[in-house]
Each structure stands twice: as C-alpha cells, then as structure tokens.
Amino acid sequence: MSGRALLRLALTLPLLALAGCGGAAKPDPQLPGARLDVYSSLPTRGPLSALAAETLAAERLALAQDGGRVGRYRVRLVALDASTPGLGRSDPGQISLNARQAAQDPQTVAYLGELATGTSAISIPLTNEAGILQVSPLDTAMALTGASVEIAGSPERYYPKLKDNGRTFARVVPSDREAAGALLAAMRRDGVRSLALMTDEDPSGRALATDLAAKAPAAGIAVAIRQEVDEQGPLDTGAVAQVLALHPDAVLDTTVARPGAADLWRALAVDDPQLRLYAPVSLADRLFLAHLGAAAALAHVAAPAPRADGRPARAFARAFAVRYGYAPARAARYGYEAMRGVLAAIRRAERAARDGRVTRAAVVRAYFRTAVAASVLGPYAIERTGDTTLRDWTVLAVAQGNLLVSRATSAAPRPAADARTRSRARAVASARPAGRS
To answer: What's the whole-model pTM score?
Structure first.
C-alpha cells in the first residue's frame, strides 16, 4: 500500500475504532477463566517476512521458558498474519482485522505488534478502545508516542479512550526521534556539511525528515533541498537532477520501502560516486539491499542497536539456536523482550491483585512500571509515554545484500532516564524474590 493510503488509514482509523467497537466505557472486569491470550501480528509475506518469522520464534521462546504459564494462568500465543497474498506485505486492512479479533476476544491480555514502521497507527486505536496492552517489538514511528508536525493531533489521536484507559501502547525499540540524532552524528563524523532530503507521502518518513532537518543546523549541516518523489511511480529523473545540481555531500532518503526504491539510489550513485547515501532501517528491506548495485558502497543505514552482548543476550542466543537450529538475528531480541515484558507485567498484576485475578487495566499499569536491570537489550525502563529509555542506534554498511555493523553511534545520552531506570529496577528488585522484574 502506498504511503498516501497508509496516511489516510492512520488518520481515519481512530474514528472507525469508535464506530466499530461502540458503546460507553465499561468497568474493567477480571479476565475470565484460567487462560490468557497474547496476540502477535506479524507479516508472513514480503520483505519483512524473514524478520517477522524470527520475531515470532523469539516470542514463542520467551513464553516456553516460562512454561507457558504465569501463576494460575495458562498463556496462549495467538499468531496472526499481518500481510495478505494480494498486497504481498503488511496490509493495513489485515492489521485492522487482527486488532479487532484481539479486541473481541474476552481473554486477550496483550497484543504484540506491529512490525512495519508506522503500521501500529492502525491497530493502536482498536486495542486502546478495548483497554488492551499493546507492545511493539520494532515499530519506530515517533508519532505513536510523541507529537509530530506531519500528523496533526499525534499521538493523542491514536488513543480514542485516552481519558478512560490512558496510554496503552509501548515499545521496546527506540523511536525515530533518536534515529535523527544518530544519523546526524554519523553525517557529522563523515564530514557532511550539505544534505539533501528525499521524502514521499509516507507519514513516518516525513516525520523523520522533518525532525532531522530541525536538528541539522546545530550539527553544522545545512539542508540544501527537500525533494518530494512519487513512491508509486517510475524513477523521477527530474527529481534526481534537481538534487544533484546542488552538489550536496549526502542524501537522506526516508521514502517508503517499495520495489523501485533501489533505482533512485543507483541513479544518484552513477551521477556522483562520492555522494554519501543514508536511510532509516524501514527503507532497507531485502529487495532494496539486493538491488543497490554500485550504490551499496555509498550506503549507510541507521538501525536500532541492542546494548553490548551481555550474559542475557548470550543466553538467549544459545537457547534460540538449541530450539530452532540456527543463530538469531540481533533484531530478534526485540521480539523476545516484548514477550518477556508482557509476561512480567501479568505476573506483577497477579501478585498485586487481592484474589490473584488480573484485569487488562492492571496489566497495562504493571507494564508501564517496567524497569529491567538486565535484559537481552540491556537495562531499560518504560516511560509514561510508552517509549523505552533505550536510545542506542548504529550505522550499518551494506555488503552483498546484507547490513553489516560499520560504526556505532547513538543519540544524545539521557542521564536522567538512565538513573531512573536503575532506581526503578532497584525498587522492583527489593519488592520481589530474585529474578526478572
């Protein structure tokens, strides 16, 4: 689906959610029975299918390590496909159906999704309406948790029951707001002084470009041009010519992933072999990377980076390899941690309940108190906005169609957030037996 269609869906679905679920807010009842359902919405088709498969495998591993149970409850993982054969990748219509299925299941306690950047804007209004905790492993779109000038009314527009249910969405991956800082740090170190921005109508990409443009002057980088391209049309040679005529040191491309995206980069590389090309990880799918040609030598891709491989990460990698027969990608850690965080929140909610019966609201409250001293991602907490205190990104090179670590960068450090993470983790640890928060 085009960025234009996704934008329309993201802006209208809060109203559709109200119309579809309807009715006045109800008291938060105890979840019935001895089973809790956690839904996972991931695409089995398209460029993200391999990453989605590993993310789901990591979620299943986390649940299996807890024996498929939390206290009195048996926890069931319900895996839903976020893609369709017709579109061949994440489909906004299917994502809406997935969220509605979870919302209509009286035993749903949490929803893990989405994967493609910005697509959580489709499911959040529906899960928020139902008071269900939603945790995304890898959706970095900044408008989901903070204001974006590209999407009016964000992020509140995604929470139709904000007054009743509050924020119900969180993520374990840093947002694109930190990506902008990481990209600028890499550009500055690479000697970039003049930058061209290329965007289309994808709201998440536009938001990243706007945020980076606002921060660029402080990094000593001038934005020479912001060029719009048609994400559905053929290569716009006129747009390429306008960019190259200004002789920028680098181009940042935040357009939506699409079959012809690599054509633009190859055209830029042919005309200026010294040009540095940058992109967020949301653009760099397998098809894009495999068809860069000579542009691969100029490519730099910003991606969220888990902390250094400590003991929890090594233990996860071993357990994953034993269970599935191959080593996991680093990004699979985010799926593992999303499920681990949900299970820990259910456990805290059950312990806090007088009769041991949990409610959706109690699980949401418990998750937003997450503070983990040691995890596969490093120490982190969940902020009241739903963002993680993790801020680290890395800049990746491209070789033989794969992303490879070339250098590490990070956004501006947040000492207060790090201190709060440690403080909250100590408080949680002192209130429970040894183990995970």
So the answer is: 0.88
CA angle 162, 134, 322 (to 5 degrees): 165
**DSSP conformational letter for 321:** H
Establish whether domains 15-24+35-174+309-391 and 176-304 are of one fold: yes
| Paired tokens of 406 | 């070339």
282 with 140: CB under 8 angstroms? yes
Identify the three-state secondary structure at position 174: coil
* Domain map (residue ranges) of the chain: 15-24+35-174+309-391, 176-304
Query: Is residue 146 a contact partner of residue 124, using CB atoms and an 8 Å limit?
Result: no
Taking a C-beta distance cutoff of 8 angstroms, is the pair 14, 252 a contact? Answer: no
- Fold entry, domain 15-24+35-174+309-391: Rossmann fold (3.40.50)
Question: Diameter of the chain by CA atoms?
Answer: 70
pLDDT per residue over 367-385, tens digit each?
999 999 999 999 999 999 9
Q: Which residues contact 178 (CB under 8 A, 6 or more apart)?
A: 391, 392, 393, 410, 411
The residues facing 395 across adjacent strands are 302, 407
Query: Taking a C-beta distance cutoff of 8 angstroms, is the pair 265, 275 a contact?
Result: no
CA distance 293 to 127: 42
**DSSP class per residue in 18-71:** HHHH-S-----PBPPTTEEEEEEEE-SSSTTHHHHHHHHHHHHHHHHHTTTEET
Q: Is 266 helix (H, G, I), strand (E, B) or coil?
A: helix
**What architecture is domain 176-304?**
3-Layer(aba) Sandwich (3.40)
> Contacts for 210-217 with beta carbons within 8 Å, 24 or more apart?
210/148, 210/149, 210/150, 211/142, 211/148, 211/176, 211/177, 211/180, 212/180, 212/183, 212/184, 212/252, 215/180, 215/181, 215/184, 216/184
CA pair distance 412, 278, nearest whole angstrom? 19
pLDDT digits (tens, 9 = 90+) for 312-351: 999 999 999 999 999 999 899 999 999 999 999 999 999 9
Q: Are 173 and 140 in contact (CB under 8 A)?
A: yes
